[in-house]
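Give me structure tokens for this 783-residue protein.
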Amino acid sequence: MTPWPRRAPHALQKMVCALCFTVMVSAGDAVAENCRSSYITNCTECLYHGPDCGWCFQEGFLEGSPVNERCDLVSKLIKKGCPMDLIEHPRVKVEIDDNASSTQVTPADVTVDLRPGSEASFILRVEQLQRYPVDMYYLVDVSASMQETLDKLKTVGIALSQRMKEYSSDFRVGFGSFVDKPVSPYINVHPSKIENPCSDYDIQCRPAHGFIHVLSLTENITEFTRVVRQQRISGNMDTPEGGFDAMLQAAVCKEHIGWRQEAKHLLLVMTDQPSHLALDSKLAGIVIPHDGNCHLENNLYTKTATMEHPSVGQLAEKLLENSIYSIFAVEQLQYKWYEDLIPLMPGTFVGKLLPKASNLKELVVEAYKRLLSDVEIQILVQSQVPKFDVRITAICPGGSQLPGQNKCSNVRPNETVLFNITIGMRECHNDGGETLLVMKPIGFNETTTVRVRGTCSCQCLDPREPASGRCFGESGPWDCGGSRPGPCPCAGEGNETDVTPDCQRDDAQPACSGRGICLCGRCVCDRISVGTVHGQYCEIDDFSCPYHRGLLCGGRGQCVLGECRCASGWGGESCACSTSIEPCLASDSQVCGGRGKCVCGRCQCDDPRRSGQFCETCPMCNSPCEMNWKCVQCHLSNEFSEATQCNTTCSPLVHYVDEISESRRETAKYCLYPTTDRCHYKFQMDSVFGGKQIHIIRYPECLSEQRYFPTFFAIFLLTVFLGLTMTVVLKCVLLQRGQRQNKTMAAVYDITTKDMSYFPTANEKTITYRRDMSAEMHITKCL
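Here you go.
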């Protein structure tokens, strides 16, 4: 084998370096060509073409050359003769405020400056301490089915406190109870049931309630035990309870509950049923969405009967904001329902509660250890978000890196978890500005505030007019990179609130409809998780109006402050009704033929006997009986007085008789006038001397069950008798046919046992005749 030359490695290194340099030069040329795109006409467009592009705003730069020559790599602009201080090139940087104090989550404050197409990274540190102060609030379902669990809780308080002191030297407990919304159909609204839901069982129960805060967080376990022993069960009608309602109040009413800033917050929910969800309240006519605020007065939740249950997302957000871990101690039948909530509610543990809560101590301790061993961060957005990309890589204590993951498990005390946070800016939103992102580890009371500032427009100034705010190009000045000359609007005040009449629909409305802020005379609408708010005054949204066939306002209008503004030709609460009367015009050009009104493009007849497209069908309207109903009704309502007050409305004379003569029965038919259920009057009309008379039988006939019960019973007995007779006849026929067949067979064959001394051959059949015994016959005589 020929040995490798001694200087070969140096030659190989030169080849590799030359190749790398060629690749770098090619990449640099590609970036430079992108910055010199012929489509660039101003400074702002230059910034959009990449984070490496710069814009030279020197007056007279490369005079006579295309305007896109002002945009290039910074190094090339300097080579072209543009001074560095006249190059617009916003830097991408990360600034950490070292003065912000924090012990578990660092850094506490970060500022990131970005421009379109750029990204920046920083490291977030979360340290798990050895021992924390612990606040645990018991939230107990006191419906009747929880009696045994409540009894167990009366004795377990001290033991659980002693066990938790192994993990915390500063442990406090509190107590609250819930049942359900005290309105129908969730409870029985009979007065006796409202005061005592258990009145049918001779038990004195407390009234149903949404949430009652009973005991604030305290170190006095004796007081906790005393309060729990005073609790009595309540009751409601449906299976789900109002647990989410109570949980949200326990989370946001921090001053009432007594949550401490420095402590770990545990919310222990004990129940044996699932919870109502947000839209369930509509069954009781409650349609006001939950506002997420505290509504405790005298320790009683006051909005339980007027405000909807919170949604799962809303509850999860409030628990995260207030650094609360949730522990669901539920019976085995409901375990799967609550287990499905874990992906939707970070910082949640679900444990199976054994009968009589015998494992409550072990369940709470296991939940506490499990929750503290998971370190997970969530991002809370505090303002309107431009189009940013946020990527998280978890670096766990063992050194393993988990790209795209925001959680490390099995973290021990005094260990540190690192998160590599990368924020990229895809494009600008409005004029850039500042966006607040809050990085919050779940269950921790410390956060990291990230201020992301996007540079979306040029800040270059004319050296001759330092305050003009103008950038220069080939064809003259641009307003901050825009298309019209003049000073920048609201210059120097872009982040200050400016409430002006330009942001109000009228004097009675708040600025931006109360759903945004007024900046420089323009509304910047709030970002709401359930939908989008927009419009000149933030008055339009896509979530708070009625739906029709899955479309907001039926797809025929706009939702303005909770009401549908229907398009022309449509009306109704959800714009589902056509206001056009054309479908209701009959051949005579009258609406519904003059016999009704047009509702949602269809005729609604005035007379309930009428029907048809234009109320033209009425089989009973021209009947002689129907024509005289009003007259008969008038006389009957005056108690058979034959008063003349009906003569003004009835031309024929009315006579009351006990029965109608035989001659009249043949000449005219009866008419029936119904009065009450199963009762009617009979009346008859005949002609007398060219006129008409109405004869009414005085006494009504009622079709009562007692009157026709004998007839019905006779028909029933006759039917049963005929059925039994047919069955007997059919049976006799079948028996006689069977007996004739038995006689024939008995004369030919003997069905007794064969004589085994004779064995026939394969081609023989054995037939044994027995004449020593007569055939037994059963004869049944049929009458």
